[in-house]
Design goal:
Blueprint: H1 11-19, H2 27-37, E1 42-45, H3 52-66, E2 77-80, H4 84-97, E3 106-109, H5 115-125, E4 129-132, H6 134-142, E5 153-157, H7 159-162, H8 168-191, H9 194-197, E6 203-208, H10 213-218, H11 220-223, E7 227-230, H12 235-239, E8 241-247, H13 253-264, E9 269-272, H14 276-288, E10 293-296, H15 302-314, E11 319-322, H16 324-327, E12 337-340, H17 347-354, E13 364-370, H18 372-385, E14 389-395, E15 398-400
Parallel strand pairs: 1-6, 1-7, 2-4, 2-5, 3-4, 5-6, 8-13, 8-14, 9-11, 9-12, 10-11, 12-13
Antiparallel strand pairs: 14-15
Helix pairs in contact: 2-3, 6-8
Length: 404
């Protein structure tokens, strides 16, 4: 199975992939696509940048393309993701894969868009595919404007973030609605009514670079019987990403960041700070130092977030300063460096941050700038993840090996 056709993907979808010069499936795609095409639910974990989005989109869209005669009962495919940016990216990918295919409308249902316009759009376009964040999907469902009777394929992208404290309540409520629909179908199947609608059991795909035990527990009503599929989560961390550590006292971190950017001259650098209120402050300092930078953090309106991402994506801003939640799921080509201004004890946080670089077969650098306590945390992560972290110093305007 060295190509997508060998996995059972339709020629028309293969043709769209060819337009992106995508011809060879990744390991997670080889693992997941056949399962989902067999209408088997799956929870899958794979490192960031390994192609998880295509792993679920291709089977889901193939189901839509193969079944256009069923009377409309609501969307047949639904993708739930935690952030507005990730939802938009997934919608764009669906639009690309379906380009030239008439009769399959797709709706983006996120919290930053006017609710009335979304309701009108659902009524008029009758979307077969929907992408949205849990808060807006739940609201529309409770209002009776978004129905799940026709749902065949459900995706929970970034499942661990969907079950984190900031999304947990809304995700749990949505999961109950989906579980109720599953139960309704099971009861109908026992009485023979399910055959009259043409619906089968709901196929569910939940994925992330990290899928914790807590995530699986919270989603257990939905995921009973779903197979857990995993690839080597450290493969990209070891093979494509260089890991550097730069010591800096807390009060000097921003200046160290400025010095590093001047020395390394990154093509595109994503800078992480654990606190949203710090992102805006750091961005202002970088801009004052004549560094082309933008910021992405919680509390920004849709226009501001889009402008920041567009500037970074286009190269007008070489540096994007962001919080973890704001950057979750961002897929921006050409990020050469990821720079963390704090070091968490959580290995999953390190995996998600580092995974913003080293994508699509390219190399990248993960830089941790921290004080003595954070360097000890980083040493512990180095052992847990099986990676090699190399200490670096800034000397004479260059990034150097430590002077002995």
């Amino acid at each position: 199975m060295n190509d997508f056709a060998g996995l059972g993907v339709l020629p028309e979808l293969n043709g769209r992939l060819a337009n992106k010069s995508v011809s060879c499936p990744t390991s997670v795609q080889r693992l997941v696509i056949p399962k989902l095409l067999e209408n088997k639910s799956a929870v899958f974990r794979s490192a960031t940048g390994t192609g998880k989005t295509l792993a679920y989109l291709l089977p889901g869209l193939q189901q839509l393309l193969c079944d256009t005669d069923t009377p409309y009962q609501g969307p047949q495919m639904l993708v739930c993701a935690p952030t507005l940016e990730l939802c938009s990216q997934i919608k764009d990918e669906i639009d690309f894969l379906l380009e030239g295919k008439s009769g399959i409308n797709v709706s983006l249902l996120i919290g930053s868009i006017n609710l009335s316009r979304q309701i009108d759009s659902i009524k008029k376009s009758k979307p077969l595919a929907v992408v949205g964040n849990p808060g807006r999907l739940l609201l529309l469902a409770k209002m009776g404007k978004l129905k799940f009777k026709g749902l065949r394929f459900l995706v929970l992208d970034e499942a661990d973030r969907l079950t984190s404290p900031e999304c947990r309540e809304e995700t749990a409520a949505l999961a109950q609605l989906f579980a109720a629909e599953q139960k309704r179908r099971s009861s109908a199947d026992q009485t023979g009514q399910i055959s009259q609608t043409g619906l089968t059991s709901l196929v569910i795909a939940a994925c992330s670079a990290t899928v914790s035990v807590k995530t699986r527990e919270l989603l257990s009503p939905l995921l009973d019987g779903a197979e857990l599929l995993e690839t080597d989560e450290q493969e990209i961390l070891r093979d494509r990403i260089s890991h550097w550590a730069i010591f800096s006292e807390a009060r000097q971190k921003t200046q160290t960041l400025v010095s590093f950017i001047a020395a390394a001259k990154p093509k595109k650098a994503l800078v992480f700070t654990g606190r949203s209120n710090e992102a805006e402050k750091i961005n202002s300092i970088l801009q004052h130092k004549k560094i082309a930078a933008a910021a992405l953090f919680g509390g920004m309106d849709k226009k501001g977030r889009k402008e920041a991402i567009d500037r970074f994506r286009s190269g007008k801003a070489a540096v994007l300063v962001c919080s973890d939640l704001a950057a979750r799921g961002l897929d921006i080509p050409g990020i050469s460096h990821v720079i963390a201004l704090d070091v968490s004890e959580d290995k999953d946080a390190y995996i998600h941050r580092a995974g913003r670089t080293g994508r699509a077969g390219k190399k990248g650098v993960m830089v941790s700038i921290g004080d003595e306590v954070e360097m000890r945390r980083l040493a512990a992560l180095e052992k847990k993840l099986g990676i090699a972290v190399y200490p670096k110093e800034l000397y004479g305007g260059k990034v150097c090996e430590p002077i002995q």
